[in-house]
Design a protein that fits this description.
Layout (H helix, E strand, L loop, with lengths): L6 H4 L22 E7 L20 H8 L2 E7 L4 H10 L10 E2 L6 E2 L9 H6 L3 E8 L13 E6 L14 E5 L4 E4 L3 H13 L10 E6 L37 H4 L5 E2 L5 E3 L2 E2 H10 L1 H17 L6 E7 L4 E2 L5 E3 L5 H4 L1 E6 L8 E3 L3 E2 H12 L13 H5 L9 E5 L18 E2 L2 E2 L1 E5 L3 E6 L6 E4 L17 H17 L15
Parallel strand pairs: 1-9, 1-13, 2-17, 2-18, 5-6, 5-9
Antiparallel strand pairs: 2-16, 3-4, 6-7, 7-8, 10-11, 11-12, 13-16, 14-15, 19-22, 20-21, 22-23, 23-24
Helix pairs in contact: 2-8, 3-10, 5-8
Length: 503
């Protein structure tokens, strides 16, 4: 159990302490534990604390977590599962994650840990116990004994034949040793293991800890727990306006997205099921996650660790259901596809019940966690420390959020932009996205038109301002911001991008 905190510690500010490297002591507000809750394909729209949620959505426990911290309205951690996770392990955008690569049957992947080090390794040197529980999607080498002291992992890249088993029958490897098949509902089992770790079982209780808890929910096949399969009966919702083409003003590639069919009455269906059935099942899968958050917060309170534990809640990216023609799809730069929820909470050190409307990027999370531990960045990272925004969520912030999507290529393998279908991930081309509080700019890395949206007036991203003459000045400005951010992060393809096509 963590040591009792003094009044002085409870009133600690956001300035991170300068704990000595290698120090071994229980967590304090200046060297807090970190519980990083990471969900999968989990749209911000499924949380009732977000205004974009449907009116029948209810996530009281995640909402309560948000009320005890700062909720960010928009986070862009990555375009799909693997690069999002690689970003949260390295602090780099996809183009800076050297040696990470897809190899063998999907989702087989490999990397060189010398060229692609993960920051939990350095956190161990800094006196932390590091733990990872749940889904792994970044190389068959999960890093036990190098990056992690404690690991109960579903290694998808290694056990490709069970890579779709998100909820049952997962091969779990225990601390780099035996591998056994998990029969329980994965969300519940991962939570049990996390609670056990937080209580101190199997770890050095004289050190602060970092736990990356990687749920598989609510990834396809969106399987809810048995106890939730009757939830949301009778719910209703409108069909997204652009579920079927044509989509006026959109790029050519976006006109071709057609993942839904029309039934005899013109209603959207897929695989023989109606639109509402798909959306209901997806949301049913969130209930167990909400219950998990309650259990995790309860055990932190019970063990006296809540006030010296930084809690983050986010997902790898979002998921579109119907918007812009997509079905259960991420990757595309639209908020419906890739926008994640994000909550930071640490009573006494982070203000409570606040909302930050500044959009942020995945690498920013790593820089911020490192700042909380008092640890210097072990290498040059792409993210920016968000503690000024956590101290004052309404503070001015001149930095745009960026998302770079280069399909299944990473690091220097992205230096040469491919042509034709090789420049696509599914039906979405490689791209660079830049976002400020109001506007979003997307530059495709194929010869097609750009996209520009006023998210204040057009949150559904239906009206592409890039095709309108009166917005050319803003378009050029945000195009320049994208190039500047790529240069800042030493992107190899920045001077090789195809020329944009005029609308």
């Amino acid at each position: 159990m963590a040591s009792t905190m003094t009044r002085r510690n409870l009133l600690g500010t956001l300035s991170a302490g300068l704990g000595a490297r290698g120090m071994a002591a229980p967590a304090t507000p200046d060297r807090p534990n970190i519980l990083f809750i990471y969900t999968d394909d989990h749209s911000h729209r499924t949380l009732s604390c977000y205004k974009e949620a449907y009116p029948w959505v209810r996530t009281p426990n995640i909402d309560r977590l948000a009320s005890r911290g700062v909720r960010f309205t928009a986070a862009y951690n990555g375009a799909w599962c693997m690069p999002s996770r690689a970003t949260l392990l390295t602090g780099h955008y996809q183009h800076g994650i050297e040696s990470m690569r897809m190899e063998g049957p999907y989702p087989g992947s490999e990397y060189d840990p010398q060229k692609c080090p993960f920051w939990p390794k350095e956190l161990r040197r800094h006196g932390y116990v590091t733990a990872q529980i749940g889904k792994w999607h970044t190389g068959t080498d999960t890093g036990f004994g190098r990056d992690w002291d404690y690991q109960l992992v579903w290694n998808r890249p290694k056990y490709t034949e069970t890579s779709t088993h998100y909820y049952y029958d997962q091969p779990i490897t225990y601390h780099g040793g035996k591998t056994e098949m998990l029969k329980r509902y994965s969300t519940d089992q991962y939570t049990d293991w996390a609670c056990d770790f937080i209580r101190g079982n199997g770890r050095d209780q004289q050190k602060p800890w970092y736990l990356w808890l990687c749920f598989g929910a609510v990834h396809a096949p969106y399987t809810p727990a048995e106890r939730h399969k009757k939830e949301l009966a009778g719910m209703d919702l409108d069909v997204p306006k652009d579920i079927f083409p044509p989509r006026a003003g959109k790029p050519d590639w976006a006109q071709k997205v057609s993942e839904w069919q029309k039934d005899a009455q013109g209603r959207p269906v897929a695989e023989g099921r109606g639109f509402i059935d798909w959306v209901r099942q997806y949301h049913q899968g969130v209930f167990a996650l909400d219950e998990a958050v309650k259990r995790l917060m309860d055990v932190l309170e019970e063990t006296g660790q809540r006030k010296n534990t930084l809690v983050l809640f986010t997902s790898d990216q979002g998921l579109a259901f119907g918007q812009h023609g997509f079905r259960g799809t991420k990757v595309a730069a639209y908020d419906a596809n890739v926008r994640s929820p994000l909550i930071f909470s640490m009573p006494g050190r982070i203000p409570e019940n606040r909302v930050c409307e500044t959009p942020v990027s995945g690498p920013d999370l790593v820089s911020t966690m490192l700042r909380f531990t008092g640890m210097r960045q072990p290498w040059e990272m792409h993210g920016r420390d968000l503690t000024p925004l956590l101290k004052d969520p309404g503070a001015a912030w001149e930095h745009p959020a960026m998302l770079v999507a280069t399909g299944r290529k990473f690091g220097s393998d992205t230096n040469a932009i491919p042509e034709g279908r090789e420049a696509f991930h599914g039906n979405v081309p490689w791209y660079v996205m830049i976002r400020d509080r109001r506007y979003k700019y997307v530059r495709p890395l194929i010869r097609d038109i750009e996209e520009l949206y006023d998210l204040e007036k057009d949150p559904e991203e239906l009206d592409n301002l890039a095709v309108k003459a009166e917005h050319k000045t803003r378009l050029r400005s945000m195009r320049g911001q994208a190039i500047a951010e790529l240069r800042r992060t030493k992107c190899g393809f920045v001077d090789r991008m195809p020329a944009v096509r005029e609308a």
